[in-house]
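Dear colleagues,

As part of the handover before I leave the project, I'm documenting each prediction I ran so the next person doesn't have to rerun anything. This entry is a single chain, and its sequence is reproduced below.
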Amino acid sequence: MTLKKAYKTNDLYPAFNSAESVSVDDISEIISKLIFFCGNVNPKKDCCFSHIVGLPQHPATLQPMKYMPHQLDLIKQSLVDKQVKFHVNKSRQIGLTEICLRIIQYQSFHKYKGGKILIIAGTREKTTRTVMNRLKSMFNTIPSTVKSNDNLSITLKNGTEIEGKPSNSEAIRGETKIKAVMVDEAAHFGIIDDSVVLDAIEPILHTNRSDIFLVSTPRGQRGFFYELTKSENDYKMVQYDYTNAVGWIYTQEEMNEELKRSDVDVDQEYRCQFTSARSSIFGVITDESTEDYEVEEY
């Protein structure tokens, strides 16, 4: 048994629908007073942000589900007033990209309100657009909070701007009013030397005291995502392997079968290990590798 997905992105994240032409009261102020999650599956009136925007959906059944313990762990650690810098080493298919986008969405009405948020994903605009569309779709249940929705950006009525950018260092440099940066699959940029990406981001973090979420499965012993694990720095290292989703997304028996596969590097993809001798499902790592990773749908 392999963990192949039969669903499509639009099943979980329908295309964003603007409410500009619909007369709906802006609920930004209401959301700004809500906690992230009340802890219950069944909602009560204005009990929490998560019930207003909708709980996560199980990737197989598409039924609402409570946050998994590892998701709640990252939520708790991130919802603080001080600057947070996360290095998130994760297994595939455990809902970590999902939760980081939800944290950013929530904080756009709180800590990041009125500022700018950068979403960086891959070296190509297509990859960035995929992640941005996923984030935009999360506003489908709260369209009254959205002022404008452009190609790679979304502006809220409270002044918060969320912009997607490819990992072009020149495109990143010089940004101001940055409250947060999310780098999705930070180990998988299709460039030989990806240190220029982090070199462009770090001054922004220092000047603006911005939060940052570096999120990725490993991809060999190379690149800034790996090097950060070997150096002294101020990033908070968190790691969530496949066991965190056992009993939630899949059974232990299903994972036992998945871990027998020889066509993927299961130590890297599911056990969060930076291996070097084998290829990953993204392909062998070489200096000639120029293709962006495929964005995870959950």
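Residues 4-9, 19-23, 277-293 have pLDDT under 50 and may be disordered. The CA atoms of residues 265 and 279 lie 6 Å apart.

All the best with the project,
I.
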